[in-house]
Design brief:
five-stranded antiparallel beta sheet, four-stranded antiparallel beta sheet
């Protein structure tokens, strides 16, 4: 097998998908920006999209591929397809039931994965009104605006309203804030002073009872409509989970028989659906300039794209003679084994996504934070998608095949070459994203509703995520060493430890660093994951002499490249405060010069060679 050649097929389509994804997100940034509609859509999209990444990028296959491969090798294609049809049918039934149950309960589900969108404080009127005032004190660090919402503005009086911070406080005259009526509610918005680092708002509220309605004052750190909009959009996007689980199943079948192209190309349909949908509706009267309506258009694009991807994979299976069909499910010993393996496998291989979900839950308590994390995540996911996912998809069937033949040395060698290739490509990517995040973010997203301030805050998150890029990819490379031996329990236990690490560091760092602390915590948890996975493989896999020799050279070449682009960026800084074409010119200069310098350093330091890469690519 040619590791590089097979990876090129998967990574090539993944790269095309990620590039189209950048174009999609440029449009998303232009139409949605980082306001409450963007926060609502990204929260609604993240929940099913996490399952897309868990299932579609290797976790389901970690359990299914070894068993399907075993059926194919020992019993032939007919029995293997019967096994695949059984699992396809069971998945369809389980996921349909899950969807039917989840959609009516979406409000409760949203409270779990985006609790910060709810009111920070709710004060109820005393029906036995005695004229007393209710004090309140709310944390607001990192918030942009504070919203006061009530059914009847005549029933509320707020006194002694003050915002405080370290050695500073500012009194606010509540009566001077303007009331606005939206959907039967009266809203007052308090715009917090920028760069003042206020941490609390406190005051005393007097709320009069009304006989007609239950009068209550709700105080929000996010826009009051964010939660309800998230629920509405989530009901539309949730069906994507069903489609992506079935797409992952069909991808596992195709990957096992060495068909990598269409499974890797399917996500392109998602990005194309977004682009077509947004462009078509951008000219429709009544939608242009309305971010909430654009968020609804984007949600329906997700819905449609799920079925398009499922249809594309199913037709590919039919054309290749792999007739997967719905049938009456039977719980055979193979099926039982699959789901026993699949449970911990999904948790283990999806640990990065679980960490991101934890980050989103915490980020929901600050307006805009989810959007900053989303846009920065899109950038660092490019090297992860091209390298990590590609290596993970290729290595699992390769290591499984060699172990079934009794070729343990060959399996270890494949993993070593996977680690070597991963580090050759991800260490320089990590260094570059840490040192020049702002030029990348401003060039890609700073248009329309996406402001310079948004670009700065998103760039800081990108630098935090970039610290963990080699770690994220190493997890994808090391996990096949467990899954190929049908060991999903150990990665699951490691995953549990990693989630705890991420939660602890996110809670510690969110206070002082805000959304950047969440990005850094995700990186820390990735390296903890790598450390534990390597320790668990100590009796099976060890770095060979070639890897030990070349890894320090790759690191040195990356540092040379990083210092070079940092210096070049100092001379080009002015370009990134100008128009789009000057920004893209500056970014191209940085990318081309950085790539050239890195390649020359790699060759000069003998971290790799063009001859070796060419020979590996030609192998068959």
């Amino acid at each position: 097998m040619s590791l590089l050649r097979s990876m090129a097929t998967v990574s090539g389509f993944t790269a095309l998908s990620r590039i189209l994804g950048f174009v999609r997100d440029i449009f998303m940034g232009y139409f949605l920006g980082t306001g409450h509609a963007a926060d609502a859509f990204f929260a609604a999209f993240k929940f099913p999209n996490i399952f897309r990444r868990i299932f579609g990028e290797g976790a389901f296959n970690s359990a299914f591929v070894p068993l399907f491969s075993k059926e194919l090798t020992s019993k032939g294609q007919k029995e293997a397809i019967r096994f695949a049809s059984q699992t396809f049918s069971i998945l369809t039934i389980v996921l349909l039931l899950m969807t039917v149950i989840a959609i009516p309960l979406m409000s409760w589900i949203t409270m779990v994965h985006a609790p910060g969108f709810k009111a920070a404080k709710t004060l109820h009127a005393d029906k036995n009104f005695l004229g007393g005032a209710t004090p309140f004190n709310i944390k607001i660090k990192g918030s942009k605006d504070i919203y006061f919402v009530i059914n009847d503005k005549k029933n509320i009086e707020i006194n002694d309203l003050v915002i405080t911070g370290k050695n500073q406080e500012k009194f606010i005259l509540f009566d001077e804030l303007k009331w606005e009526k939206e959907g039967g509610k009266w809203i007052k918005k308090l715009a917090l002073p920028k760069k003042k680092n206020f941490t609390h708002i406190k005051g005393r509220a007097t709320i009069q009872s009304s006989e007609d309605v239950d009068t209550s004052l709700k105080i929000y750190r996010n826009h009051p409509d964010t939660f309800s909009l998230t629920v509405t959009l989530s009901k539309i996007t949730f069906i994507y989970l069903l489609c992506m689980a079935l797409v992952a199943h069909l991808s596992g079948v195709l990957n096992t028989v060495k068909i990598f192209g269409m499974p890797a190309a399917a996500p392109i349909l998602l990005n194309m659906t977004f682009l077509v949908g947004l462009l078509i509706f951008s000219g429709v009267s009544g939608i242009r300039g309305d971010s909430v309506k654009y968020a609804n258009v984007a949600a329906w694009c997700v819905f449609i794209a799920g079925f398009l991807q499922l249809g594309a994979l199913y037709l590919t299976c039919l054309r290749k003679g792999l007739r997967i069909k719905l049938c009456k499910p039977k719980i055979s010993p193979q099926i039982k084994k699959l789901f026993l393996l699949m449970g911990p496998g999904v948790l283990a291989a999806g640990i990065q996504q679980i960490n991101l979900l934890v980050g989103s839950v915490i980020a929901s308590f600050r307006e805009g934070a989810i959007s900053y994390l989303y846009y920065s995540e899109r950038v660092y996911q490019l090297p992860l998608g091209i390298i990590g996912v590609g290596l993970g998809v290729i290595l699992l069937p390769e290591v499984t095949k060699r172990l079934r033949r009794g070729d343990e040395n060959g399996a270890i060698k494949s993993m070593n070459r996977g680690v070597e290739l991963a580090m050759l490509l991800t260490i320089p990517a990590s260094v570059a994203l840490i040192l020049i995040p702002y030029p990348i973010i401003s060039t890609l997203f700073q248009h329309g509703a996406f402001t310079k301030e948004d670009a700065t805050l998103t760039a800081l998150a990108l630098a935090g995520f970039a610290l963990g890029i080699p770690g994220y990819v190493l997890v994808k490379v090391l996990q096949p060493g467990y899954f190929a031996r049908e060991n999903t329990k150990t990665p699951m236990l490691i995953a549990g430890v990693t989630v705890i690490v991420n939660i602890v560091f996110s809670l510690i760092l969110f206070g002082p660093l805000g959304h950047v602390g969440i990005a850094i915590s995700t990186s820390i948890s990735a390296w903890v994951n790598v450390t534990l996975l390597m320790y668990g493989l100590k009796n099976f896999w060890k770095p060979d002499n070639r890897l030990k020799c070349r890894l320090p050279r790759v690191l040195m070449a990356s540092l040379i490249m990083g210092l070079s682009i940092w210096i070049i960026n100092k001379y080009l800084e002015g370009m990134f405060g100008q128009g789009f074409w000057l920004r893209i010119t500056g970014l191209l200069i940085l990318v081309v010069s950085g790539t050239t310098i890195y390649l020359l350093a790699v060759i000069k330091l003998k971290a790799s060679s063009l001859k070796e890469l060419k020979e590996e690519f030609k192998k068959s």
